[in-house]
UniProtKB/TrEMBL annotation:
Record's subcellular location: Cell inner membrane; Cellular thylakoid membrane; Membrane
Organism field: Amazonocrinis nigriterrae CENA67
Superkingdom of origin: Bacteria
Subunit structure: Component of the Sec protein translocase complex. Heterotrimer consisting of SecY, SecE and SecG subunits. The heterotrimers can form oligomers, although 1 heterotrimer is thought to be able to translocate proteins. Interacts with the ribosome. Interacts with SecDF, and other proteins may be involved. Interacts with SecA.
Keyword Cell inner membrane carried by entry: yes
One term of GO molecular function: protein transmembrane transporter activity
Gene Ontology annotations of biological process type: intracellular protein transmembrane transport; protein secretion; protein targeting; protein transport by the Sec complex
Protein's name according to its UniProt entry: Protein translocase subunit SecE
Chain ranges passing through the membrane: 46-69
InterPro entries assigned to the protein according to its UniProt record, in alphabetical order: SecE_bac, SecE_sf, Translocase_SecE/Sec61-g
């Protein structure tokens, strides 16, 4: 079974090749499915909304615990 895997894998040279790196990067970027502008705006707005809501909740909980700590101490 090891021989079969070895046959499928391309031979690589030792060391780093800048040309091979850029060729591989270009090949991978061509495989990417880029979102449409509408999808990008929609999902960015959703992320910003969730971050704002999360930050507000943390701020309110922190304020509550600060107030409670002042009452106790």
């Amino acid at each position: 079974m090891a021989k079969k895997n070895e046959a499928e894998m391309p031979e690589t040279t030792n060391g780093f090749s800048l040309l091979n790196f850029f060729q591989g990067t270009r090949e991978e970027l061509e495989k990417v499915v880029w979102p449409s502008r509408k999808q990008l705006v929609s999902e960015s707005a959703a992320v910003l909304l969730m971050v704002t809501l999360s930050a507000s909740l943390i701020y309110l909980v922190d304020g509550f615990f600060t107030w409670a700590a002042k009452q106790v101490f």
